[in-house]
Amino acid sequence: MNTRLPAGERREQILDVAVQVFARKGYHGASMNDVAEAAGVTKPVLYQHFDSKQDLYLALIEDVGQRMITAIAKATAGATSGKAMTELGFQAYFRWVAQDHDAFLLLFATQANRDAAATLAIKKITSEAASAIAPLIDVEIDHEKQRTLAHGLVGLAEGVSRRLVERGEDFDPDELGRLVANLAWAGLRAIGPDS
Amino acid sequence: MNTRLPAGERREQILDVAVQVFARKGYHGASMNDVAEAAGVTKPVLYQHFDSKQDLYLALIEDVGQRMITAIAKATAGATSGKAMTELGFQAYFRWVAQDHDAFLLLFATQANRDAAATLAIKKITSEAASAIAPLIDVEIDHEKQRTLAHGLVGLAEGVSRRLVERGEDFDPDELGRLVANLAWAGLRAIGPDS
DNA sequence: CATAACGGTTACCCAAGGGTAACCGGCGCC
DNA sequence: GGCGCCGGTTACCCTTGGGTAACCGTTATG
Known about the structure:
Two copies of one chain form a homodimer. Chain A is mostly helical. The first copy, chain A, has one domain (7-190): Tetracycline Repressor, domain 2 (Orthogonal Bundle). Chain A has helices at 7-25, 32-39, 43-49, 53-76, 82-99, 101-109, 116-133, 143-167, 173-190. In chain A, helix 4 packs across helix 5. Chain A is elongated, with a radius of gyration of 19 Å. The termini of chain A are far apart. Chains A and B meet through helix 7, helix 8 and helix 9 of A and helix 7, helix 8 and helix 9 of B. Chain A binds a DNA duplex through helix 3.
Protein backbone atom coordinates (compact mmCIF):
# COMPACT_ATOMS: atom_id res chain seq x y z
CA MET A 1 0.00 0.00 0.00
CA ASN A 2 1.76 3.05 -1.23
CA THR A 3 1.03 6.29 0.48
CA ARG A 4 -1.12 8.81 -1.29
CA LEU A 5 0.97 11.64 -2.61
CA PRO A 6 0.10 15.26 -3.39
CA ALA A 7 -0.02 15.94 -7.12
CA GLY A 8 3.32 17.69 -7.40
CA GLU A 9 5.29 15.00 -5.64
CA ARG A 10 3.54 12.26 -7.54
CA ARG A 11 4.48 13.89 -10.80
CA GLU A 12 8.11 14.07 -9.76
CA GLN A 13 8.08 10.48 -8.63
CA ILE A 14 6.61 9.35 -11.94
CA LEU A 15 9.31 11.19 -13.83
CA ASP A 16 11.99 9.65 -11.63
CA VAL A 17 10.73 6.16 -12.09
CA ALA A 18 9.94 6.56 -15.78
CA VAL A 19 13.56 7.39 -16.60
CA GLN A 20 14.59 3.99 -15.32
CA VAL A 21 11.79 2.12 -17.01
CA PHE A 22 12.29 3.74 -20.41
CA ALA A 23 16.06 3.46 -20.17
CA ARG A 24 15.86 -0.24 -19.45
CA LYS A 25 13.11 -1.21 -21.87
CA GLY A 26 13.10 1.49 -24.51
CA TYR A 27 10.17 3.60 -25.59
CA HIS A 28 8.13 0.91 -27.26
CA GLY A 29 9.32 -1.84 -24.98
CA ALA A 30 7.93 -0.09 -21.95
CA SER A 31 4.19 0.15 -21.59
CA MET A 32 2.34 2.72 -19.57
CA ASN A 33 1.35 -0.13 -17.31
CA ASP A 34 5.01 -0.85 -16.70
CA VAL A 35 5.63 2.74 -15.72
CA ALA A 36 2.53 2.83 -13.55
CA GLU A 37 3.47 -0.38 -11.81
CA ALA A 38 7.01 0.84 -11.18
CA ALA A 39 5.55 3.99 -9.69
CA GLY A 40 3.24 1.93 -7.49
CA VAL A 41 0.06 3.30 -8.99
CA THR A 42 -2.29 2.51 -11.86
CA LYS A 43 -2.45 3.76 -15.40
CA PRO A 44 -5.07 6.48 -15.13
CA VAL A 45 -2.93 8.24 -12.56
CA LEU A 46 -0.27 8.74 -15.22
CA TYR A 47 -2.84 10.35 -17.46
CA GLN A 48 -3.71 12.79 -14.74
CA HIS A 49 -0.22 14.16 -15.01
CA PHE A 50 0.65 13.63 -18.65
CA ASP A 51 -1.54 13.84 -21.71
CA SER A 52 -0.07 10.84 -23.43
CA LYS A 53 2.83 8.44 -23.46
CA GLN A 54 4.63 10.70 -25.88
CA ASP A 55 4.02 13.68 -23.65
CA LEU A 56 5.59 11.86 -20.71
CA TYR A 57 8.53 10.79 -22.80
CA LEU A 58 9.18 14.25 -24.16
CA ALA A 59 9.01 15.70 -20.66
CA LEU A 60 11.64 13.18 -19.61
CA ILE A 61 13.98 13.99 -22.46
CA GLU A 62 13.68 17.69 -21.83
CA ASP A 63 14.29 17.23 -18.12
CA VAL A 64 17.25 14.90 -18.42
CA GLY A 65 18.75 16.80 -21.34
CA GLN A 66 18.68 20.12 -19.57
CA ARG A 67 20.25 18.55 -16.51
CA MET A 68 23.14 17.34 -18.65
CA ILE A 69 23.61 20.61 -20.46
CA THR A 70 23.62 22.68 -17.30
CA ALA A 71 26.02 20.30 -15.56
CA ILE A 72 28.52 20.81 -18.36
CA ALA A 73 27.86 24.53 -18.58
CA LYS A 74 28.45 25.01 -14.88
CA ALA A 75 31.66 23.02 -14.93
CA THR A 76 33.13 24.94 -17.83
CA ALA A 77 32.01 28.36 -16.68
CA GLY A 78 35.20 29.15 -14.83
CA ALA A 79 37.66 27.85 -17.38
CA THR A 80 40.42 30.18 -18.40
CA SER A 81 41.69 28.43 -21.50
CA GLY A 82 40.18 26.40 -24.31
CA LYS A 83 42.08 23.37 -23.26
CA ALA A 84 40.94 23.66 -19.67
CA MET A 85 37.39 24.14 -20.85
CA THR A 86 37.58 21.02 -22.96
CA GLU A 87 38.85 18.98 -20.09
CA LEU A 88 36.36 20.32 -17.59
CA GLY A 89 33.55 19.79 -20.06
CA PHE A 90 34.35 16.18 -20.78
CA GLN A 91 34.86 15.49 -17.11
CA ALA A 92 31.50 16.96 -16.24
CA TYR A 93 29.90 14.91 -18.97
CA PHE A 94 31.45 11.65 -17.82
CA ARG A 95 30.54 12.48 -14.26
CA TRP A 96 26.97 12.93 -15.36
CA VAL A 97 27.07 9.56 -17.12
CA ALA A 98 28.65 7.79 -14.18
CA GLN A 99 26.10 9.25 -11.77
CA ASP A 100 23.05 8.28 -13.74
CA HIS A 101 23.41 5.51 -16.27
CA ASP A 102 19.69 5.53 -16.95
CA ALA A 103 19.68 9.17 -17.93
CA PHE A 104 22.48 8.53 -20.38
CA LEU A 105 20.69 5.53 -21.84
CA LEU A 106 17.50 7.49 -22.23
CA LEU A 107 19.17 10.14 -24.31
CA PHE A 108 21.75 8.19 -26.23
CA ALA A 109 21.16 4.49 -26.24
CA THR A 110 17.47 4.37 -26.04
CA GLN A 111 16.08 1.59 -28.12
CA ALA A 112 13.15 3.42 -29.48
CA ASN A 113 12.71 7.02 -30.31
CA ARG A 114 10.92 6.07 -33.42
CA ASP A 115 8.65 8.95 -32.64
CA ALA A 116 9.49 11.86 -34.90
CA ALA A 117 8.93 14.29 -32.05
CA ALA A 118 11.23 12.42 -29.71
CA THR A 119 13.93 12.19 -32.34
CA LEU A 120 13.63 15.92 -32.77
CA ALA A 121 13.82 16.55 -29.05
CA ILE A 122 17.01 14.55 -28.75
CA LYS A 123 18.48 16.18 -31.79
CA LYS A 124 17.85 19.49 -30.09
CA ILE A 125 19.84 18.40 -27.05
CA THR A 126 22.83 17.09 -28.98
CA SER A 127 22.71 20.14 -31.17
CA GLU A 128 22.84 22.35 -28.12
CA ALA A 129 25.82 20.42 -26.86
CA ALA A 130 27.50 20.74 -30.23
CA SER A 131 26.90 24.48 -30.19
CA ALA A 132 28.80 24.72 -26.97
CA ILE A 133 31.68 22.74 -28.39
CA ALA A 134 31.91 24.37 -31.79
CA PRO A 135 33.61 27.61 -30.65
CA LEU A 136 36.49 25.57 -29.28
CA ILE A 137 37.30 24.57 -32.82
CA ASP A 138 38.82 27.91 -33.65
CA VAL A 139 41.01 26.78 -36.48
CA GLU A 140 40.61 28.21 -39.93
CA ILE A 141 37.89 26.04 -41.26
CA ASP A 142 34.51 26.71 -42.71
CA HIS A 143 31.60 26.97 -40.37
CA GLU A 144 29.76 23.90 -41.58
CA LYS A 145 32.77 21.66 -41.10
CA GLN A 146 33.22 23.14 -37.68
CA ARG A 147 29.74 22.18 -36.62
CA THR A 148 30.09 18.76 -38.16
CA LEU A 149 33.22 18.14 -36.14
CA ALA A 150 31.47 19.35 -33.03
CA HIS A 151 28.81 16.70 -33.56
CA GLY A 152 31.63 14.25 -34.03
CA LEU A 153 32.99 15.09 -30.61
CA VAL A 154 29.57 14.59 -29.09
CA GLY A 155 29.61 11.19 -30.75
CA LEU A 156 33.08 10.52 -29.39
CA ALA A 157 31.92 11.05 -25.84
CA GLU A 158 28.80 9.05 -26.53
CA GLY A 159 30.72 6.10 -27.94
CA VAL A 160 33.06 6.01 -24.99
CA SER A 161 30.22 6.22 -22.51
CA ARG A 162 28.06 3.65 -24.21
CA ARG A 163 30.72 1.00 -23.93
CA LEU A 164 31.35 1.70 -20.28
CA VAL A 165 27.70 1.84 -19.34
CA GLU A 166 26.88 -1.31 -21.26
CA ARG A 167 29.64 -3.15 -19.48
CA GLY A 168 28.39 -1.85 -16.19
CA GLU A 169 31.93 -0.92 -15.37
CA ASP A 170 33.00 1.49 -12.75
CA PHE A 171 35.17 4.22 -14.13
CA ASP A 172 36.79 7.39 -12.97
CA PRO A 173 35.06 10.23 -14.82
CA ASP A 174 37.81 12.72 -14.15
CA GLU A 175 40.56 10.50 -15.43
CA LEU A 176 38.50 9.52 -18.44
CA GLY A 177 37.64 13.14 -19.13
CA ARG A 178 41.31 14.03 -19.08
CA LEU A 179 42.10 11.25 -21.51
CA VAL A 180 39.35 12.06 -23.98
CA ALA A 181 39.90 15.79 -23.70
CA ASN A 182 43.55 15.23 -24.51
CA LEU A 183 42.60 13.33 -27.62
CA ALA A 184 40.04 15.87 -28.69
CA TRP A 185 42.15 18.91 -28.02
CA ALA A 186 45.27 17.62 -29.73
CA GLY A 187 43.16 16.40 -32.62
CA LEU A 188 41.52 19.75 -33.08
CA ARG A 189 44.86 21.58 -32.97
CA ALA A 190 46.13 19.36 -35.74
CA ILE A 191 43.48 20.10 -38.29
CA GLY A 192 43.48 23.17 -40.41
CA PRO A 193 42.23 24.60 -43.66
CA ASP A 194 44.55 22.27 -45.53
CA SER A 195 42.90 19.18 -44.13
CA MET B 1 0.66 -6.48 -61.11
CA ASN B 2 4.18 -7.23 -60.10
CA THR B 3 5.95 -10.05 -61.82
CA ARG B 4 6.30 -13.30 -59.95
CA LEU B 5 9.83 -13.78 -58.75
CA PRO B 6 11.78 -16.93 -57.94
CA ALA B 7 12.30 -17.40 -54.22
CA GLY B 8 15.92 -16.30 -54.10
CA GLU B 9 15.38 -13.07 -55.95
CA ARG B 10 12.27 -12.26 -53.97
CA ARG B 11 14.22 -12.69 -50.77
CA GLU B 12 16.90 -10.31 -51.99
CA GLN B 13 14.32 -7.80 -53.10
CA ILE B 14 12.62 -7.91 -49.72
CA LEU B 15 15.91 -7.29 -47.95
CA ASP B 16 16.66 -4.38 -50.27
CA VAL B 17 13.34 -2.75 -49.72
CA ALA B 18 13.21 -3.49 -46.01
CA VAL B 19 16.41 -1.52 -45.36
CA GLN B 20 14.73 1.59 -46.66
CA VAL B 21 11.49 1.02 -44.81
CA PHE B 22 13.12 0.30 -41.46
CA ALA B 23 15.61 3.13 -41.86
CA ARG B 24 12.85 5.61 -42.54
CA LYS B 25 10.30 4.46 -39.98
CA GLY B 26 12.28 2.59 -37.37
CA TYR B 27 11.73 -0.93 -36.17
CA HIS B 28 8.47 -0.40 -34.36
CA GLY B 29 7.28 2.32 -36.66
CA ALA B 30 7.39 0.05 -39.67
CA SER B 31 4.83 -2.72 -39.86
CA MET B 32 5.24 -5.92 -41.80
CA ASN B 33 2.44 -4.62 -43.98
CA ASP B 34 4.55 -1.57 -44.78
CA VAL B 35 7.45 -3.75 -45.82
CA ALA B 36 5.21 -6.03 -47.84
CA GLU B 37 3.58 -3.13 -49.61
CA ALA B 38 6.93 -1.57 -50.42
CA ALA B 39 8.03 -4.88 -51.87
CA GLY B 40 4.87 -5.07 -53.93
CA VAL B 41 3.59 -8.23 -52.28
CA THR B 42 1.46 -9.21 -49.31
CA LYS B 43 2.37 -10.10 -45.78
CA PRO B 44 2.37 -13.90 -45.94
CA VAL B 45 5.04 -13.73 -48.61
CA LEU B 46 7.40 -12.17 -46.08
CA TYR B 47 6.78 -15.05 -43.74
CA GLN B 48 7.75 -17.52 -46.43
CA HIS B 49 11.23 -16.03 -46.34
CA PHE B 50 11.61 -14.94 -42.74
CA ASP B 51 10.30 -16.53 -39.58
CA SER B 52 9.34 -13.30 -37.92
CA LYS B 53 9.74 -9.56 -38.02
CA GLN B 54 12.70 -9.84 -35.72
CA ASP B 55 14.25 -12.48 -37.93
CA LEU B 56 14.00 -10.19 -40.93
CA TYR B 57 15.45 -7.30 -38.97
CA LEU B 58 18.38 -9.30 -37.68
CA ALA B 59 19.11 -10.55 -41.19
CA LEU B 60 19.19 -6.95 -42.34
CA ILE B 61 21.57 -5.84 -39.63
CA GLU B 62 23.89 -8.73 -40.28
CA ASP B 63 23.83 -8.05 -44.00
CA VAL B 64 24.37 -4.31 -43.81
CA GLY B 65 26.90 -4.57 -41.00
CA GLN B 66 29.08 -7.03 -42.82
CA ARG B 67 28.96 -4.89 -45.92
CA MET B 68 30.27 -1.96 -43.93
CA ILE B 69 33.00 -3.94 -42.20
CA THR B 70 34.29 -5.48 -45.40
CA ALA B 71 34.26 -2.15 -47.21
CA ILE B 72 36.54 -0.72 -44.56
CA ALA B 73 38.67 -3.82 -44.37
CA LYS B 74 39.25 -3.84 -48.10
CA ALA B 75 40.14 -0.17 -48.18
CA THR B 76 42.70 -0.44 -45.42
CA ALA B 77 44.23 -3.72 -46.57
CA GLY B 78 46.98 -2.08 -48.60
CA ALA B 79 47.94 0.63 -46.14
CA THR B 80 51.60 0.92 -45.33
CA SER B 81 51.42 3.12 -42.25
CA GLY B 82 49.10 3.56 -39.34
CA LYS B 83 48.24 7.05 -40.41
CA ALA B 84 47.46 5.96 -43.95
CA MET B 85 45.31 3.16 -42.61
CA THR B 86 43.39 5.57 -40.41
CA GLU B 87 42.71 7.87 -43.32
CA LEU B 88 41.74 5.10 -45.73
CA GLY B 89 39.50 3.56 -43.10
CA PHE B 90 37.59 6.73 -42.34
CA GLN B 91 37.29 7.50 -46.02
CA ALA B 92 35.87 4.07 -46.75
CA TYR B 93 33.43 4.50 -43.89
CA PHE B 94 32.21 7.89 -45.05
CA ARG B 95 31.97 6.58 -48.59
CA TRP B 96 29.77 3.80 -47.31
CA VAL B 97 27.59 6.33 -45.48
CA ALA B 98 27.36 8.63 -48.49
CA GLN B 99 26.42 5.77 -50.78
CA ASP B 100 23.68 4.37 -48.64
CA HIS B 101 22.12 6.66 -46.09
CA ASP B 102 19.52 4.06 -45.25
CA ALA B 103 22.09 1.47 -44.31
CA PHE B 104 23.74 3.95 -41.97
CA LEU B 105 20.45 4.89 -40.39
CA LEU B 106 19.53 1.26 -39.89
CA LEU B 107 22.68 0.59 -37.91
CA PHE B 108 23.25 3.84 -36.10
CA ALA B 109 20.23 6.10 -36.00
CA THR B 110 18.62 6.21 -32.63
CA GLN B 111 15.43 6.27 -34.55
CA ALA B 112 15.93 2.66 -35.57
CA ASN B 113 14.68 1.05 -32.45
CA ARG B 114 15.73 -2.27 -31.32
CA ASP B 115 14.83 -5.01 -28.97
CA ALA B 116 17.43 -6.84 -26.94
CA ALA B 117 18.48 -9.17 -29.74
CA ALA B 118 18.88 -6.36 -32.24
CA THR B 119 20.82 -4.28 -29.77
CA LEU B 120 23.15 -7.20 -29.33
CA ALA B 121 23.55 -7.65 -33.06
CA ILE B 122 24.46 -4.02 -33.50
CA LYS B 123 26.79 -4.09 -30.55
CA LYS B 124 28.56 -6.95 -32.28
CA ILE B 125 29.07 -4.84 -35.40
CA THR B 126 30.40 -1.79 -33.60
CA SER B 127 32.55 -4.01 -31.46
CA GLU B 128 34.04 -5.58 -34.56
CA ALA B 129 34.75 -2.13 -35.91
CA ALA B 130 36.36 -1.12 -32.65
CA SER B 131 38.53 -4.21 -32.72
CA ALA B 132 39.88 -3.13 -36.05
CA ILE B 133 40.63 0.32 -34.74
CA ALA B 134 42.10 -0.61 -31.39
CA PRO B 135 45.52 -1.76 -32.68
CA LEU B 136 46.09 1.67 -34.15
CA ILE B 137 46.15 3.04 -30.65
CA ASP B 138 49.60 1.73 -29.96
CA VAL B 139 50.51 4.15 -27.23
CA GLU B 140 51.41 2.94 -23.80
CA ILE B 141 48.02 2.59 -22.30
CA ASP B 142 46.16 -0.23 -20.70
CA HIS B 143 44.13 -2.49 -22.88
CA GLU B 144 40.75 -1.56 -21.50
CA LYS B 145 41.31 2.14 -22.10
CA GLN B 146 42.49 1.33 -25.56
CA ARG B 147 39.26 -0.44 -26.44
CA THR B 148 37.22 2.27 -24.82
CA LEU B 149 38.91 4.87 -26.98
CA ALA B 150 38.35 2.71 -30.03
CA HIS B 151 34.62 2.77 -29.30
CA GLY B 152 34.94 6.49 -28.93
CA LEU B 153 36.34 6.79 -32.43
CA VAL B 154 33.48 4.71 -33.77
CA GLY B 155 31.20 7.20 -32.05
CA LEU B 156 33.14 10.08 -33.55
CA ALA B 157 32.52 8.82 -37.06
CA GLU B 158 28.92 8.08 -36.18
CA GLY B 159 28.30 11.56 -34.81
CA VAL B 160 29.77 13.21 -37.87
CA SER B 161 27.76 11.01 -40.21
CA ARG B 162 24.51 11.39 -38.34
CA ARG B 163 24.54 15.13 -38.71
CA LEU B 164 25.31 14.99 -42.41
CA VAL B 165 22.74 12.32 -43.15
CA GLU B 166 20.06 14.04 -41.14
CA ARG B 167 20.65 17.24 -43.03
CA GLY B 168 20.50 15.37 -46.28
CA GLU B 169 23.64 17.16 -47.30
CA ASP B 170 25.96 16.10 -50.01
CA PHE B 171 29.49 15.71 -48.78
CA ASP B 172 32.80 14.54 -50.10
CA PRO B 173 33.62 11.36 -48.20
CA ASP B 174 37.30 11.47 -49.07
CA GLU B 175 37.76 15.02 -47.88
CA LEU B 176 35.76 14.33 -44.76
CA GLY B 177 37.72 11.17 -44.11
CA ARG B 178 40.95 13.10 -44.36
CA LEU B 179 39.69 15.69 -41.91
CA VAL B 180 38.43 13.24 -39.32
CA ALA B 181 41.41 10.95 -39.71
CA ASN B 182 43.68 13.91 -39.07
CA LEU B 183 41.82 14.68 -35.89
CA ALA B 184 41.83 11.10 -34.73
CA TRP B 185 45.42 10.39 -35.57
CA ALA B 186 46.81 13.54 -34.00
CA GLY B 187 44.60 12.98 -30.98
CA LEU B 188 45.82 9.46 -30.50
CA ARG B 189 49.45 10.49 -30.82
CA ALA B 190 48.94 13.02 -28.09
CA ILE B 191 47.70 10.69 -25.40
CA GLY B 192 49.99 8.57 -23.38
CA PRO B 193 50.26 6.71 -20.10
CA ASP B 194 50.35 10.03 -18.31
CA SER B 195 46.92 11.04 -19.53
C1' DC C 1 -22.25 14.86 9.89
C1' DA C 2 -23.08 16.30 5.05
C1' DT C 3 -20.30 17.30 1.29
C1' DA C 4 -16.82 18.62 -1.83
C1' DA C 5 -12.25 17.86 -3.43
C1' DC C 6 -8.81 14.91 -4.53
C1' DG C 7 -5.99 10.82 -5.13
C1' DG C 8 -6.78 6.51 -6.75
C1' DT C 9 -8.95 2.12 -8.72
C1' DT C 10 -11.58 -1.24 -11.63
C1' DA C 11 -13.02 -2.47 -15.79
C1' DC C 12 -13.46 -1.54 -20.10
C1' DC C 13 -12.95 0.17 -25.33
C1' DC C 14 -10.66 -0.05 -29.57
C1' DA C 15 -7.00 0.23 -33.07
C1' DA C 16 -2.79 -1.64 -34.60
C1' DG C 17 -0.31 -5.11 -36.02
C1' DG C 18 2.23 -9.78 -35.81
C1' DG C 19 1.22 -14.05 -37.46
C1' DT C 20 -1.60 -17.84 -39.93
C1' DA C 21 -5.14 -20.97 -42.35
C1' DA C 22 -7.14 -21.73 -46.41
C1' DC C 23 -7.51 -20.99 -50.98
C1' DC C 24 -5.98 -19.68 -56.06
C1' DG C 25 -3.86 -19.86 -60.70
C1' DG C 26 -0.28 -20.55 -63.96
C1' DC C 27 3.65 -23.14 -65.55
C1' DG C 28 6.38 -27.31 -66.30
C1' DC C 29 6.32 -32.30 -66.58
C1' DC C 30 5.56 -36.88 -67.38
C1' DG D 1 -4.09 -32.78 -70.67
C1' DG D 2 -4.39 -33.97 -65.99
C1' DC D 3 -1.33 -33.06 -61.91
C1' DG D 4 1.47 -31.10 -58.65
C1' DC D 5 4.57 -27.59 -57.46
C1' DC D 6 5.18 -22.80 -56.26
C1' DG D 7 4.52 -18.01 -55.83
C1' DG D 8 0.83 -15.49 -54.33
C1' DT D 9 -3.64 -13.72 -52.21
C1' DT D 10 -7.74 -13.00 -49.12
C1' DA D 11 -9.49 -12.98 -44.90
C1' DC D 12 -9.04 -13.84 -40.56
C1' DC D 13 -7.32 -14.53 -35.40
C1' DC D 14 -5.75 -12.70 -31.16
C1' DT D 15 -2.69 -10.33 -28.20
C1' DT D 16 -0.81 -6.00 -26.81
C1' DG D 17 -1.30 -1.71 -25.22
C1' DG D 18 -2.76 3.35 -25.40
C1' DG D 19 -6.41 5.70 -23.62
C1' DT D 20 -10.93 6.49 -20.87
C1' DA D 21 -15.54 6.35 -18.23
C1' DA D 22 -17.31 5.50 -14.11
C1' DC D 23 -16.77 4.69 -9.52
C1' DC D 24 -14.54 4.64 -4.59
C1' DG D 25 -12.53 6.05 0.02
C1' DT D 26 -10.24 9.36 2.78
C1' DT D 27 -9.61 13.76 4.48
C1' DA D 28 -10.96 18.38 5.64
C1' DT D 29 -14.08 21.88 6.39
C1' DG D 30 -18.04 24.35 7.52
